Amino acid sequence: MEALLLAWFDTNGRGLPWRGTRDPYAILVSEVMAQQTQVERVVPRWQRWLERWPTIEALAHASAAEVIAEWQGLGYNRRALNLHRAAQHVAAHGWPDDLTELPGVGRYTADAVACFAFGRDVLPVDVNVRRIGERTGATFSSAAAQALMDLGATVCLARIPRCDICPLAGACPSRGRRYEPLRKQGAFEGSFRQRRSLALRAVIAGEEPGDHEAVAALARDGLVLVSESGVSLP
Length: 234
Ligand code: SF4
Fold this sequence. Notes:
- The chain is mostly helical.
- It folds into 3 domains: 1-12 and 122-182, Endonuclease Iii, domain 2, CATH 1.10.1670; 23-116, Endonuclease III, domain 1 (Orthogonal Bundle), CATH 1.10.340; 192-232, no CATH class.
- It is built from 11 helices and 2 strands.
- The protein has a two-stranded antiparallel sheet with strand order 1-2.
- Strand 1 (225-227) and strand 2 form a beta hairpin.
- Helix 1 crosses helix 9 and helix 8 crosses helix 9 (145-154).
- It is globular and about 65 Å long.
- The N and C termini lie far apart (50 Å).
- It binds iron/sulfur cluster (SF4).
């Protein structure tokens, strides 16, 4: 099955810009950005980020305030702080053998950096890769990692897989099945997440955020500092 998948990937793979590098820093940035943000939105932001901070040392020397401000629009701002802390750790101590020691780096992200940057023989298993494994019953090697991610993102979709164009259809026992809708993420509009986002934007713009509950939550996460003189970026 893997050979069929790789042949499909040769002509149908997504030409994502971070696939042209083996720089672990650039790949870490792409993976952290893509954790909870659509890939299409990540691409221009990743390019801009790498132009601003081309190396992990450059990012380590940036201020937390600059990093938080640059992250705006990607959502889940704690990722920015963790990325900054990870950069400081690597700049001071080098890349750890166990990448999950880095702030904000879980099993999947660690395996993705290990595979795509360091060439280790480990298959990063995200939701797409897991789904294809469960549906096909096949096992895949680390060489198929990017192909699996692309198949999961464009063909073997969560609810209504496009089995009619799938390179694995001939050997897939789940061919033609439909699936129940997944639990949807709560609406952003009107959510506390939105209030936090608006409060943080106000602080970045040098305005008074007003929403004390949201500011308190941001302060707990280290995204803002609250003092007698007001609310500021760290
Ligand atoms: S045949 Fe359908 S269910 Fe099986 S891997 Fe392809 S898209 Fe997914």
